[in-house]
Amino acid sequence: MLRILALHPPTRSRAGNLFHAVGIFASKWRTAEREALPAFLQRLPNVLPAVITVVIILLGTFVPAESGGNTRGDRAISLLGLVVSLGIFYITSRNRSKINFLAVFGGTAAQFVLGLLVLKTKAGYDIFSFIGEMAKKLLGYSSVGTIFLTDKTVPTMGWFFISVVPAVIFFVAFVQLLQHWGWIGWIVGHFARVFSVLLGISGAEAVVAAASPFIGQGESAVLIRQYMPRLTKSELHQIMTSGFATIAGSVMSAYMTMGISPVAIISSCVMSIPASIALSKMRYPETDEPVTRGRAPLRGAQGEDVLRQAQEQDNMEAAEQDADAPEEERAYNSLYALGQGAWLGLKIAGMIVASVLCIMALLGLVDGLLGWWGSYINVPQVDIQLIMGYLLYPVAFLLGVDRTNNGGGDLRSVAELLGIKIVANEFVAYGDLTTDPKYQTLSPRSRIIVMYALCGFGNFSAVGIQIGALTQLAPHRAADVASVALSALITGIVATLTSASIAGMLIGGDSL
Length: 512
Known about the structure:
Number of strands: 0
Domain Concentrative nucleoside transporter C-terminal: 265-504
Largest sheet: none
Order of helices and strands: HHHHHHHHHHHHHHHHHHHHHHH
Protein name: Concentrative nucleoside transporter, CNT family
Distance between the termini: 28 Å
Domain Concentrative nucleoside transporter N-terminal: 80-151
InterPro entries: C_nuclsd_transpt (IPR008276), CNT_C_dom (IPR011657), CNT_N_dom (IPR002668), Gate_dom (IPR011642)
Helix content: over 70%
Strand content: under 5%
Transmembrane segments: 47-64, 76-93, 99-119, 158-178, 190-215, 262-279, 348-372, 384-401, 448-469, 481-507
Number of domains: 1
Oligomer: single chain
């Protein structure tokens, strides 16, 4: 049916109208639902979403039959990890009386339903598997350029530099081309409308949350650059959290070429979007009035006549954005856009290579100093992995990692990988997961959970990237950005971990 519909030229406008109609239906449904409730429940508007969320999670977790690597006891521990995460963020909230529980319960339910779709239904798994395989094939075409520049044997060498850099450059250039054609803005704008209506967040937050997996941390905020000076601190917190909780399309290629499951990467990113919203709105509730509340800044106005006004509003906003854009940033044709993307991809790939090189060297230095100090206390094997393995041991347990494999050794191995991801970055952690012999004995359950847990930009080096990007867009908000950065980092890390907990509650096989 989709193929038949795609044969007609107005498909894009019809799909846009469908998105707008869904938004109107969801808004009216919420209004009718509230009016249909008894009077005492209308005074407690969060009761019904809470009950629905709890029922969905309990049924989805414990009803499916057990398997060898996923008993109900294992699921209960992963569920406990999710509850503990939500409870800690509620206790440490800056203002519990202002928490948007619609975003909390709606985001948690959406995250779990997405997990069910991927891990418990053949149709959902097939969809994400198809997307992952198509992405892998798309990125594989970068080897054509590599072969032209070198020879046929180079792409098969398996080096990080050879396998990652060409794929990153090609993918960034391809995304830049899609953005020039208007597809990225179209997709992100409609996703933003869905988030804004269903979760009650502002349009600016919804845009960045929807764009983060496509564009990446920092860069996604460019889509709302005209609103940056007027964002509330809660919105800044949410924008940064979205960046830390997910990864960008430009680096998905790197993980896939390293042997990480495309299904795990894509589903983790999608699941972590509502998770970042839920946790951020608990940790840093909105206390002001956002200027984009109730509307997505990339799309038309909402209301009864939204279908008629949408196209006119889109054209006006597109014209304003083009007028505001610096002359050198605008691509005059597709070839120019591709060239711009290639240059941007080269800079991103260069930053990745330089960061990994320097971080690995710095970790080696720190490990050397720790080993030198450890020799004086008769613990010569002390290093960062050992320390983080013990500090994050409870976290690995609450994720539901296999407690029996290797005599319980999986718990410390996963904790070490989590520590590497936070201290260094996910590149280094994924590299160790796929190449270091000590992690090759992880059970299938532990391996799947840690694939989800590592899939995010939540590390200390990413804080500098986000602060630099956001302060460039709104220089006078530098102090506000810096004040919420650490809280957003922790929130983003935990949002990714909750996706891993849900994966632990739902996985049923030995692989993805």
